[in-house]
Write a structure and sequence with these properties.
The protein has 172 residues and is mostly helical. It is 64% helix and 0% strand.
Length: 172
């Protein structure tokens, strides 16, 4: 995982909770109440995921919906359809973001992600993007690469630029 984006992803989750006046300890009950399947995560485990910058896109979407936070407009048609599995929701959100920004081909995006997040092949990235199986930091870096502002309400632009600059330096 690319450290600047992982750090920013954890910050986004903390901002999301703070804006709703929630603490990490409040979230597991909300997730359980919102979930049709048994999502077993306690406050300690959630705190550790956030602190260790290991929140994935699925957990982020679960939290976003469970706490009734504002959903980026482009995602509304998918999040309103709660009949989708969480994996299908993640895949739909990623695909919609890419579809909305056609300036880069899917293959260009795969190549960029593989070069930014070393350690995973282009084949792996193709699958991760298609399935929406991304860490939140990876998803945020993908949004940055395609020029999406879907998460702008939870981020300071200076922080996004800083993460992008550090990533570029790491690539050189």
């Amino acid at each position: 995982m690319n450290k600047p984006w992982a750090n920013l992803a954890s910050r986004v989750v903390r901002v999301l909770l703070a804006r709703k006046g929630l603490k990490t300890g409040d979230v597991p009950a909300l997730l359980k109440k919102d979930s049709q399947e048994n999502l077993a995560i306690d406050a300690q485990a959630l705190s550790e995921l956030i602190a260790k910058e290991r929140v994935d896109l699925e957990l982020f979407l679960r939290i976003l919906l469970a706490i009734n936070a504002d959903v980026p407009p482009r995602w509304l048609r998918f999040t309103a359809n709660r009949k989708l599995s969480w994996k299908a929701l993640c895949a739909s959100v990623v695909a919609e973001e890419i579809r909305h920004y056609p300036s880069a081909s899917s293959e260009d995006i795969v190549q960029r992600m593989a070069s930014m997040h070393r350690g995973a092949s282009t084949t792996t990235w193709r699958v991760k993007i298609k399935e929406g199986d991304l860490a939140l930091g990876e998803f945020m870096s993908l949004l940055n690469e395609i020029g999406s502002t879907s998460l702008a309400q939870y981020l300071d632009w200076d922080d996004v630029v800083a993460a992008a600059l550090v990533t570029r330096k790491m690539m050189d």
